[in-house]
Structure formats: C-alpha cells, structure tokens
Amino acid sequence: MNTLVLGYGNPLRGDDGAGWGVAERLQGVAGITAVPLHQLLPEHADLIHTAVHVIFVDAAVDGEPGAVRVQALAPDRQGLAASHQMSPGLLLAMVAELYGRCPPAHLITITGQNFGYTETLSPPVQESARQVEKMVRSNRFSEETADGS
Questions:
Q1: What's the pLDDT tens digit per position in 93-134?
Q2: CA-wise closest residue to 58 among 102, 95, 91
Q3: Are 59 and 18 in contact (CB under 8 A)?
Q4: What is the domain extent for residue 135?
C-alpha cells in the first residue's frame, strides 16, 4: 500500500493543469502512486481503497494566484456526481460503501492565475506546484493556507 496522489485537471488549460503537473512530477517516487487525471471517476475507487493515504490535487479559481490550501477530507454523500464532475468526498463515500474502509484523505488546491489555452503553468502556480510536490514527498503537511510565495 502506498500514498495515492490523484492530480486532476486539464493540462491544456494553463493553471487548470496544476494537479496533473504535480502528479506527473511524483510518478516514480518510492512509496507514492501518482496518477494524473482529467477528472475524478467512480472507477478510481478501486485505486483508493488499497491506499494508506489519498491526496487529491486540483486547481482553484478563488484566492491569490499560487495560494496553496490543504484540507482534510471525509466521505461525503452530498458531493456532486455527474459525468464531468465528481467531488473527492463523494468518491471517498463510494470507497467506504464498496470496500468497507476509507483511507485518510486530503485535498490540496493551488489557486490559478491563467486558465487560457496553454500547456504552461503561470509562474506563481509553477512555484506552488513545486511546494506541493515537496510537501507530498516529505509527507509533512497539515490543514493550512500558504500564500505560495
């Protein structure tokens, strides 16, 4: 069992690809299974149930560009479940119901600056993505808000 990192977003839409980029950087790191995704899907429950810890990484639109927010997650049946949007809480609730267990989970968001058509992260998001990568590698993070600087 490893720490599972699900980094999701659209890498063709600038900073929306922040989660994807973090997951790509963490691929091949010992003790971490990192998966870049376009979106969360029910099929990901199979990956989650065997993990010791799950970290969801996504872009955010509110806040100062580059701001990093970490929050603990719990299964939540009230989350969205649509073909193009599934909340991490609902996915965790599915895991708990299907497998009888749910690993500890966190959501890390990085506030974006540019969501236009580009494959490049903006400078503040690039720096914050490196910060998030270090947090995950060291497995030392808590619920906090950082300014990304």
A1: 999 999 999 999 999 999 999 999 999 999 999 999 999 999
A2: 91
A3: yes
A4: 3-146
How many C-beta atoms surround the C-beta of residue 43 within 10 A?
A: 8
C-beta neighbour count of 28 within 10 angstroms:
8
* CA 12, 16, 21, 27 torsion-angle sign: negative
Residue 49 dihedral angles phi and psi, to the nearest 5°: -65, -20
Return the structure tokens found at 64.
């100062």
Q: Domain tally for the chain?
A: 1
CA gap 26, 41 in Å, rounded: 21
pTM of the model: 0.90
Which CATH number is 18's domain given? 3.40.50.1450
State both tokens at 102: 């749910």
